[in-house]
Write a structure and sequence with these properties.
- The protein is an alpha/beta fold and about 325 residues long.
- The protein has 2 domains: about 5-90 and about 175-315, P-loop containing nucleotide triphosphate hydrolases (Rossmann fold), CATH 3.40.50.300; about 105-170, no CATH class.
- The chain has 11 helices and 12 strands.
- Helix 4 (about 110-120) packs parallel to helix 7.
- The radius of gyration is 20 Å and the shape is globular.
- The two termini are about 35 Å apart.
- The model is unreliable at about 265-275 (pLDDT under 50).
- Iron/sulfur cluster binds near residues 296 and 311.
Length: about 325
């Protein structure tokens, strides 16, 4: 079966003007998402998840370049011109990115904006699209959604705006949804509802989902497979239940412990950057040995389960 989304040997780099050096921010990332499948990209901020997602959407900031192969079905995305890519976005590929405030026009009502893509791309009437939007928002826990759609973005809370953007993306019924931290502005009750709506959309439409998140629990609840990223590399991947419950990489194990602690008291997972030669996690790892001054590659340790760690077998 051909994967819906296939990313092969993705490198993302930026030119640093102050010392004229090109810095690799994402390094040799490979992953797939099938139709109807939810795949998580898990890791702390600064690990390369968002850049990977922006590379798929071809929305990298100025001066940042992606190289490698990204295909959606049979379409290779990186060589597409801007017009072809714009036509594909919002039809086959929908995106929800962080900062919902920046994505909404303050001069238009939320209802106008949430329904716009569905009217344009699916040919729905405004009334039909608005009714669907109210239903979806209600399922996500927005009280009085029908009336609230007539309000402007500044009259909605941050959490409501995040759900509005997710609704706009889902109304298009895309083949693939890229969702970057879609639940970060929500309380625990709303997170559960949003994840249920995402799962329902997948079951109904066979939508593929790439869930980019630092939230171990959200990925565990939603995804069938997961790729854990650290310092721009995938360090562990495989079935979500296997990887998240019985992690082999020390970084994945740390994410699990921090997620469990968070349920009792908040613990911040800070951005961790590559500072030493060899394994990028070496400076943070209690298992590090002399051998870790070399770069570990992903090795298979179980069915579909891969780990980039010299001591992953012994965790
Ligand atoms: S390779 Fe070494 S430093 Fe890297 S995660 Fe494994 S044990 Fe730790």
């Amino acid at each position: 079966m051909t994967a819906l989304l296939k990313v092969q040997h993705l490198y993302v780099s930026a030119h640093r003007a102050r010392d004229a050096v090109t810095v690799d921010l994402v390094k040799d990332v490979n992953f797939t998402v099938d139709s109807g499948e939810a795949v998580g990209l898990l890791g702390a901020s600064g690990g390369g998840k968002t850049l990977t997602c922006l590379s798929v959407a071809r929305l990298l900031p100025f001066g940042v370049q992606a190289q490698g192969e990204i295909s959606l079905g049979s379409t290779s995305l990186l060589p597409l011109n801007d017009t072809a890519m714009a036509q594909l976005r919002g039809v086959e590929l929908s995106m929800v990115f962080q900062e919902p405030s920046a994505a909404l026009n303050p001069l238009l009502t939320v209802g106008e904006q949430v329904t716009d893509a569905a009217c344009a791309r699916r040919g729905l009437s405004y009334d039909d699209a608005r009714a669907l939007a109210a239903e979806t928002l209600g399922a996500m826990g927005v009280v009085g959604a029908q009336k609230a759609l007539s309000a402007f973005p500044h009259q909605w809370s941050q959490g409501m705006r995040a759900r509005a953007l997710l609704t706009a993306a889902l109304l298009v019924r895309p083949l693939l949804l890229l969702a970057d931290e879609p639940t970060s502005a929500l309380d625990a009750a709303a997170v559960g509802r949003v994840l249920e709506v995402l799962k329902k959309a997948q079951a109904q439409d066979g939508m593929g989902l790439l869930l980019v998140s630092h939230d171990w629990l959200a990925v565990r609840q939603t995804c069938q497979r997961v790729y854990v990223m650290f310092a721009g590399r995938i360090v562990e991947s495989g079935p979500a239940a296997q990887v998240l419950e019985k992690p082999r990489h020390p970084y994945t194990a740390r994410l699990k412990v921090e997620a469990q602690r968070r349920w009792q008291s908040p613990v911040k997972t800070g951005a961790l950057s590559e500072t030493l030669a060899g394994c990028p996690y070496r400076g943070h790892c209690s298992k590090a040995s002399e051998r870790c001054s070399e770069m570990p590659t992903l090795e298979t340790v179980g069915p579909g389960h891969q780990v980039a760690c010299f001591h992953g077998e012994t965790l």
